[in-house]
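User: Could you check the structure of this?
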Amino acid sequence: MNLKRDIVIPAPALAAAPSRAVRVALGIAGAASFAALTALGASIEIPLQPVPITLQTLFVLLAGASLGARYGTLSQLMYVGAGAAGLPVFAGGASGAAILAGPTGGYLIAFMITPALIALLLKRSETLLWQIASFTAGKLLILTLGVIHLTLFYTHDIGRSLFVGVLPFLPGAVFKIVAAVSIHRSSRALVRHYRARQQ
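Assistant: Sure, the predicted structure tokens are below.
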């Protein structure tokens, strides 16, 4: 038996192991960063009732565009999970799992879905019009799930839900979509570098 010949060291596999660890570490770090940014956005609010206006959704949109579906979604799972676990990261410094059953619950649930939608849409094209359409679709998803939740559990009136859950947010929605497109386009080189490290 020739030990030197019979012992096979899978060099590619060994080389790939650190690379995979780096990819995972980068993904988790990016997700944690966007979870923190979403919490920061929650602290910037106009305290309307029953749903306050905040900057959260800007970072939800950008999470999907910057991190991709997997880690963009993870960022919002981290954010919502931290708030549900008791950290005061929701709008107005609120916390606790009961918030998910409150008036803002539908919006928070949408946060955990929207990054995947944004990422999947932006995979198709990076033209300006498609970016606008993608971020608009993400914002509409958040508003739609928010209104459905409000209607089913609170107002029981779709008109009332649209009045309190959509109408006050339309000017801000336009601003956030424009801001998301602008930030995404200006940071595309950085995002491409980050995403390339995730491949």
